[in-house]
Amino acid sequence: MKSRSAILAITAVGVGVVVAPAVGAGQASATPATTCTMAYLNPNVAPLPLQANSVFEASAGGNGKMTMKVRTDAVSVVGYRQHVSFTWANLDTGRNGGEQWSKRVVGPTNTVTFPGVKTGVGRITFQANVSNTSAVDAKRVTTGQCGTEMKAY
C-alpha cells in the first residue's frame, strides 16, 4: 500500500498509547529499534473493560531497510479478526509508504513481520493502526493507534 499521507486518523474509546525504547536502561542493542503500544478493548466483550494490546516495533537493518513487527495479545480464547496497517515517512527524503495485513488473532502470542521495508536512510516517522472485529458480533469493532520516530541508517 503506497500512501501520500503519513498519518491515518483512527479514534476509539479506551485507546491508550505508550512510546518506549525497545531496550531497557543499561542494555545494549545491536540493532537500533523503537516501539509503541496500542491498547484497546477486546471486541468480543466490548463494552466490558477487558483490554487487549498490540506492540509495533521498527528496527533498522542498514542500507536504508527496516523490519516492522506487530505483536498482539488478543486476550481472547475465541479470537477475532484483526486488520493491521502502518505508514512510514522519511522526513529527510520525502519518501513514504506502508503495509497492511489481516488475520484472526487468538491468545497472547500473535506476530506479523514485514522485513526489508525500504524506507531509505534518514529520520523515519511511523503511524501504526489496528482494527479488531468481533467474532461474536461483526458490528463490534475496536481500534488502536500509535506513532513513533527513529533514525534509519
Task: Report on the architecture of this protein.
The chain has 153 residues and is mainly beta. It has a single domain (34-152), classed as Immunoglobulins (Immunoglobulin-like), CATH 2.60.40. 0% of the residues lie in helices and 59% in strands. The protein has no helices and 9 strands. It has strands spanning 16-21, 33-41, 51-62, 65-73, 80-90, 96-105, 110-118, 122-134, 141-152. The strands form 2 sheets. Strands 1-2-3-4-7 form a 5-stranded antiparallel beta sheet, with no helix packed on it. The protein has a 4-stranded antiparallel beta sheet with strand order 6-5-8-9, with no helix packed on it. It is elongated. It starts with 15 loop residues before the first strand and ends with a strand. Mean pLDDT is 84; it is low at 1-29. Residues 1-30 form the signal peptide. Keywords: Signal.
Number of helices: 0
**In this structure, how is the largest beta sheet organized?**
5 strands, antiparallel
Q: Which CATH class is shown?
A: Mainly Beta
Low-confidence stretches: 1-29
Q: How many beta strands in the DSSP annotation?
A: 9
* Strand adjacency order, main sheet: 1-2-3-4-7
CATH topology: Immunoglobulin-like
Q: Report the CATH architecture.
A: Sandwich
CATH homologous superfamily label: Immunoglobulins
The helix content is under 10%
Q: Which sequence of SSEs, written as H and E, runs from N to C?
A: EEEEEEEEE
The geometry reads as elongated
Output mean pLDDT: 84
Estimated share of beta-strand residues: over 45%
Helix/sheet category: mainly beta
* Rg estimate, integer Å: 16 Å
Total domains: 1
